[in-house]
Amino acid sequence: MSDKKNIIICRCNEVAQEEIEALIDQGVTDIEMIKRLLRIGMGPCQGRTCLPMVISILSRKTGKKPDEIKLPATRIPVRPVPAGVLVGEMESDGNEE
Amino acid sequence: MKSRAEVVIIGGGVIGLSIAYHLGKLGVEDVVVLEKNYIGSGSTFRCASGIRAQFTDEANIKLQKYNIERWKRLSDELEHDINFKQSGYLFLATSEEEVEVFKKNIKLQNRLGVPTRLIGMDEAKEIVPPLNTEPFLAGAWNPEDGKASPFHVVYGFAKKAKEFGVEIYEYTPAVDILVEKGEIKGVKTEKGIIKTGIVVNAANAWAPVVNEMAGLKRDFIPIKPYKHQLVKTEPIAEGQIEPLTCPPAWNDSYVIQDGEDGGVICGTGLEKLTHLDDVQPTYDFMREVLKWATKIIPALKYVHVVRQWAGFYAKTPDSNPAIGKINYIDGFYIAAGFSGHGFMMAPGVGEAIAELIVKGKSKVPLDWDWYDPHRFERGELRSAAFQIG
Question: I need a labelling partner for A62 at 20 to 30 A (CA). Which of B2, B114, B137, B382 fits?
Answer without folding.
Answer: B2
